[in-house]
Design goal:
Two copies of one chain form a homodimer. Chain A is an alpha/beta fold. Chain A contains nine helices and six strands. In chain A, the strands form two sheets. In chain A, strands 4-3-5-6 form a four-stranded parallel beta sheet. In chain A, strands 1-2 form a two-stranded antiparallel ribbon. The N and C termini of chain A lie far apart (70 Å). Chains A and B meet through helix 1, helix 2, helix 3, strand 2 and helix 6 of A and helix 1, helix 2, helix 3, strand 2 and helix 6 of B. Bound molecules: zinc ion (ZN) (2 copies).
Chain lengths: 201, 201
Amino acid sequence: MQTSPLLEALMEALRCLPGVGPKSAQRMVFHLLQRDRGGGMRLAQSLTRAMSEIGQCADCRTFTEQDICTICANPRRAQSRQICVVESPADIHAIEQTGQYAGRYFVLMGHLSPLDGIGPEDIGLGRLQERLAVENIAEVILATNPTVEGEATANYIAEMCAHHNVLASRIAHGVPMGGELEMVDGTTLSHSLAGRQPIKF
Amino acid sequence: MQTSPLLEALMEALRCLPGVGPKSAQRMVFHLLQRDRGGGMRLAQSLTRAMSEIGQCADCRTFTEQDICTICANPRRAQSRQICVVESPADIHAIEQTGQYAGRYFVLMGHLSPLDGIGPEDIGLGRLQERLAVENIAEVILATNPTVEGEATANYIAEMCAHHNVLASRIAHGVPMGGELEMVDGTTLSHSLAGRQPIKF
Ligand SMILES: [Zn+2]
Ligand SMILES: [Zn+2]
């Protein structure tokens, strides 16, 4: 837009958002200018506060503007003596939605990836080891992604847990509920066969 | 994200952008927090300036932070004595890209739409009439979208031009009917500009 350097700059700045290309950036700018300047201003304020105030929980490493997040600070959450290890804060959200888990979390913010130079310290395992040593933990539930890196990371942490005499468990992998068996990929199906459970009455 | 009200607020604020749903808002927030806080801060600053400083050109109504945009302020642009009428600032961008046009523009920021209560004044036709009366204009090129509303708007303006003894022309319908001007490729747009026809009554 040769008629407005500010407009051009905003189109460029929007490209920092994943999935936003030149065309959608243009559509966003015109939408905001023509129909929602208030929304654009609120977005700017929200961005500024979030980028400058959100840090990581000192206990579980999830994103929070507090020193200790509300989940870690909740004494009822500590009672279960469980820690669920996930790769990202979004995974906490997904697990919370199930309503099936009442323990605490530990967020790796990634996974081990030696080829990319991402080692144990980069995913906070020093802090996890501290917690295993100091807190009275009964079980570490490994809920990393079912990928090669996620599996390797889960195995690495399981060994750490064994070293501290803490039970480590891995979430079950298998056929997704509500899906059709023939649509499931072979690897998943292998896992679900290997991980079969006896039916008890 | 029950662990961070600021994060939740940002996810909500991002929804003001067209095409951004809950899932992509979440992906954007995590991407910025984990990998590009600098980009997020720059976006916030750019948004603030754009939303508060960008207005409309007093002559052509396109988005600009100046009183008169650079195209209107360019005396060489006035020499052609042509005004190209488009529906949106994005259309100016598309036409400029063809390199086929050296005149000035008039941006309607929409089109006539009686059913939605959008009349001539809402699309700035009062200002266009002023320009037809005061400036020595040789030709008005009607480059509204090839839609029912765009055609109706073009015809309305053509009548206005006839009243002021100014030649009105319509860009050739090499532009596919029912599409939006800003989506058209440059070659098609060049052809449609070159093949414009005077509107006769
Ligand atoms: Zn926490
Ligand atoms: Zn202008």
